[in-house]
Amino acid sequence: MTPMDSTDRAILNRMQEDLPLTAHPFAVVADELGISESDLLARLERMKTDRVVTRFGPFFDAAAMGGAFCLCAMAVPEGDFETVLTKVNAHPEVAHNYERTHRLNMWFVLATETPDGIAAAAEAIEGETGFKVWQFPKLQEFFIGFRVAA
What we know:
With 150 residues, this protein is α+β, with helices and mostly antiparallel strands. It contains five helices and four strands. It has helices spanning 6-14, 25-33, 37-49, 81-89, 115-129; strands at residues 68-74, 94-99, 106-112, 134-137. β2 (94-99) and β3 form a beta hairpin. The protein starts with 5 loop residues before the first helix and ends in a 13-residue tail after the last strand. The relative contact order is 0.16.
């Protein structure tokens, strides 16, 4: 793993903002950061390979588009965790998934096109894994920005 430098940190911070809606958005961001587009793309690829970044893509507000989000959790025995993780993550409705040191040790977010899709996705996951999916619907939304010291 390559240690992160100040440019990597600046890239991480900048990429969490709006991506310019142009034919070459990475070129615009690279120019803002004072690096070449190829350097920006290479650094993003390296950070993804090194698992500094696990996902890179747009964030859509499913609720604003008529869909829904739901935080979910499962209690998965340690010996079954990787198998269940693979099954859960195979669902396109799963936005992200985290392991926690708690009885409910697998936490993930479901994002669906309709509110009814949450129950359907959770039921499908339960059927495939044999473990209950606990659903914690959003009551209030908060935006938490992530920044690293550049």
